[in-house]
Amino acid sequence: MPSSAAHHSPTLNRRGFLRTSLGGSAALVAAPTLVGWLAAADAKAATAPAAFVDDYRSNVVANQTPETNAVVRILGGMAQVWKTGGAWDTGRVLDREVLRANMRYCARITRSRTEAQAKEAFLYDRRHQSYAMIDGLGPLAGLYTSGAKAVTSITTAPDGTPPGKISDTLPADAPAGSALGAGSYDSELGKVAKLVDTVRGPFASGNPAKFSFQYPRPWRMNEDSEVVDTGKKDALGYPVYDSDVVVAPQLLRQRSEDPEEDGGFPSGHTNAFHLAALAYAYAVPERFQELVTRAFELSHTRIMSGMHSTVDVIGGRVMATALTAAALADPANAELKAAARAQALAYFTEKTGTTADTLYDYAHSDADDVYADREANARTVGHRLTYVLPRRGRKDPLTVPKGAEVLLETRLPYLTAAQRREVLRTTALPSGYVLLDGFEQWGRLNLFAAADGYGAFDRDVTVTLDAAAGGFHADDSWRNVIEGDGGLTKRGSGTLTLTGHNRYHGGTVVEDGVLVAGAPNALGEGDVRVTGGTLRADRVLRVRGSYVQDGESTLELLLRRNHGPALTVSRRVLLGRGSVLSLRLDTERPPVAGTTVPVLSAAQLRGRFDRVELDSETLRAVPVHTADGLSVRLVRR
């Protein structure tokens, strides 16, 4: 196939679009704009591509090449596995390993699908995607639908194949002022609904990319991603293709009858799910990870239904991540996004009787919440970030795409933009996954992991939390395993909790507020210095280097009966003036009066705490110092 459009004889399709081929990719463009389009393509080809967030408005049907369309450009990894043909059914497989695994996965999933899963797939195929995402709000979901006046007409799935096409429409009995999707702009949550719709705005369609790549739906392909029309028609009048993928019965009549304009890559539903999820997550960051998880789960139903393949779903997620960042970073939407966040916070705190500091706990208070298990959520997301893609090649560092940090703006509000970029970089997937390594590598971002803070301290990190600002400013947790040569300095009046088995080497400094070690190795492998505020250990604590405490500062440890030291220090301990030791009795196995309990063990102990406190009305702690540690004898008051 020639590489220049000048060598082609373009033809019009039945919708009035001009079909031609540029750079090896088939394209649909409005016929009257061909000359201008080609000129724009030539002009852009001569210069470096613009950052996605600066060029996302180029994602319109008239632009269908990497040179003209920012979405097609970031999805360029697909061109490494599939070469678009001159027509929808003449594409060629470039990476048989990936695309064969893709089709085998789809066939296996659809052939083992249960009836309940088929009905679920129907619901999320037909229901407005923005409405479908609301359940990710958990205990806040019911409050959202009522406050936003959000409704749907798709509430049940048929047992078999319905007689015709079904769409989500406004129910006849819907309350006045109700709206489909995210809800009504004229409601208590109208700003949030408008933010969701803005993120899913006119430049967020997957159709230009579908027309560009022309990768068929899985039910139209065989194991080798080749289209084989058997020449037969099924009972519904649809052509029968040689495919092992089984479409859910409920969706057989919901399929498009025009394969030329019904590409599979990228998945439009997946794009919509993730766009809505990230918009909601911006307004309600208390449910950030749960909303991200739901987007992955609903996207998986596209594969379960037989309507899309794994590569389609991955492509939809990649484009949605970039498009959401672009919309949120767009100065035109700055006022709206701030208003949506403020409106959601005010509404939910009022309706739940909480504050900015306690809303998070309420939002995670339902034991029946299907997303209550964070570890299960992490597994769900982890697998579906890559599906069948093998990892090849060396580990290349990621340059975080311009503007991506806005995705964490409300979830990690106490970090600077540069720090949020570091969080994204240090929690990203490694390189080597085709489809994820396209322009700017948006597919490598792992937003679920990023919501849990840094994955590495590659340089020293100073974090300041302000309790007076409320919410995550006042109290947050970093749950990732943190590596790297840098260290952490905690400042500000708020509380930060580290829960990972951390391996960073640069040491830990507490200057103000509270730093909580939620795991024995939470403070990494370096020295620890407490010069102000409080270092608190929820369990036993290990310090791999030296421990120094001075100034007006507190070390808070947990005492447990018949247990080893609450704090073990590999090297020396130096205690200065103003240092306080605060001891808490374990509620399940508290030590009793008359016993001596080990508190601190070290290679060497120098100095003493100015004061030793015990949270008991009946006992007091008498310190017993030695050259290599500290114990307390518990006596009655």
Automatic annotation (TrEMBL):
Species of provenance: Streptomyces cahuitamycinicus
Tree of life domain: Bacteria
Record lineage: Bacteria, Bacillati, Actinomycetota, Actinomycetes, Kitasatosporales
Swiss-Prot/TrEMBL keywords: Signal
SUPFAM superfamilies registered for this protein in UniProt: Acid phosphatase/Vanadium-dependent haloperoxidase (SSF48317), Pectin lyase-like (SSF51126)
Phosphatidic acid phosphatase type 2/haloperoxidase domain: residues covered: 189-328
Annotated Pfam families: PAP2, PATR
Cross-referenced Gene3D superfamilies: Phosphatidic acid phosphatase type 2/haloperoxidase (1.20.144.10)
Protein's name in the database: Phosphoesterase
